[in-house]
Predict the 3D structure of the following.
Amino acid sequence: MQHKKIVFLCLILSFLCLLTSCGGERVTISQGASMTAYFTYGDKNVDNPLVGEDRQAILTMFSGKKLYHENVPCAFTEKACLIIDGKHYCVADDRCNIIYLKEQDQYFNLSAKEYDLLSEILGYYGLTYPIEE
């Protein structure tokens, strides 16, 4: 009887470990990915490649983030995004620290510090708030 309890507990622990380690898709971006700042709203018409430290910072910031499908209270537009290997990573027009991955219809969160750094980098390339349609 004791043996069955141990086996049962091991199975439950294995299942819980599997759930926590495999839970959901994550952002994957290759080191060689092309990356472009794309802003077309108001008087903005920006289509500039990101290079060097800016590119590396965003690659590090986005890679490995957990994606989810939930509805979020933020508004997104393709008119303000990063295009990374053809995928649109849209920033919220209300300064929300969530990124929308359009092609997968999924979202991921940035920390406040990451969001501030992203805003600083994209501001250098011409992003201003509010993002107007």
About this structure: Helices lie at 2-22, 52-62, 112-124.
